[in-house]
Amino acid sequence: MRELYPEIEPYRSGMFPVSDRHTLYVEECGNPDGLPVVFLHGGPGAGLSLYHRRFFDPARWRIVLFDQRGAGKSTPFADLVDNTTQDLIADIEKIRAHLGIERWLVFGGSWGSTLALAYAQTHPECVLGLVLRGIYLARRWETMWLYEEGGAGRIRPENWLRFVAAIPPAERGNIVDAYWQRLTSDDEVVRVEAARAWGAWEGSALTLEESPETEAEFSSPEVAVSLARLEAHYFRHDCFLEPGQLLRDIGKIRHLPAVIVQGRYDIICPAQSAFELHAAWPEAGYHVVVAGHAASEPAIVDKLIAATDGFADRFT
Q: In the chain, what are the domain boundaries?
């Protein structure tokens, strides 16, 4: 089993303004003269983690990572204004142009897979290839599976009951909207409590085996506030995409090399979406492994490292 590359520090990092309102945290790691790759984190709103740098051989890759609008170190924190999929696609292009990169590998998992597909379909000429993990195609049923009655809550019922306990029974017909009302409340205590409950539910569903540490991380205010607010914002708007758009437009990128990695027992992003993506894109490599959703699970790490090593071999 391949393991993550050793811990590394950025050789360059800083704040990059992409609009009059939003400034993004951007960092570069690895080899400044290496193959360029951009890492797209999940959520929306989850922000970067230190281990995200470690999916790439630092001797061979120029690794570009950034916190998306409202997430992590980017400012304003948890901000919803001018925060759409189209805004994020434009941000990726601004970063690419600013760094003088002609084409790069696009690596994204969960919401990052959604954004990677949307970006590549908009700018295929700027993409060397794609590595996609834990596929989310931003369709209504996928969101309802995780956040409404009758879906993932039947697999983790104890955690689900804690999640819905924050919402009165009369409002449970649309849990995302009920949480939205609290996440946008004028009362900071109400906002933070709702965010922590949302984050705890998502964190509890991330891994194949339950991980109290992961649940605690996702329910911490530093992660939960941006995660919950931005996810609810995006999900209420179907991620600002047309119904079925990402599968409909797969022909725009079928000529690009790609690898899809999916946990068979992924509660957050069920394997059905990865299966349908591969059916529409049979040229892509396709690996279903014994794992849940988290990119840090050993079987998923193994396939992701194999994919990035393979792309490095291919393009050098």
A: 12-140+240-315, 141-237
List, in sequence order, the alpha helices (H) in 52-209: 85-98, 111-122, 140-147, 157-164, 175-183, 188-204
pTM for the model stands at 0.97
Q: Catalytic residues, which ones?
A: 110, 266, 293
Report how far residue 218's alpha carbon sits from residue 10's, in angstroms, rounded to the nearest whole number: 24
User: CA 61, CA 105: separation in Å to the nearest integer?
Assistant: 10
Tens of pLDDT, residue by residue over 131-188, are: 999 999 999 999 999 999 999 999 999 999 999 999 999 999 999 999 999 999 999 9
The candidate with the shortest Cα–Cα distance to 129, out of 92, 110, 103, is: 103
How is residue 262 annotated by DSSP?
E
Q: What are phi and psi of 307, to 5 degrees?
A: -65, -45
The answer on pLDDT for 195 being more than 90 is yes
CATH superfamily of the domain spanning 12-140+240-315: Alpha/Beta hydrolase fold, catalytic domain (3.40.50.1820)
On whether the CB atoms of residues 143 and 114 are closer than 8 A, the answer is no
- Helix (H, G, I), strand (E, B), or coil: what is residue 40? strand
Residue pLDDT, tens place only, 217-275: 999 999 999 999 999 999 999 999 999 999 999 999 999 999 999 999 999 999 999 99
CA-to-CA dists, residue 149 to 137, 145, 192, 195, 201, angstroms: 20, 8, 23, 19, 13
Residue 197 to residue 29: CA distance in whole angstroms:
34
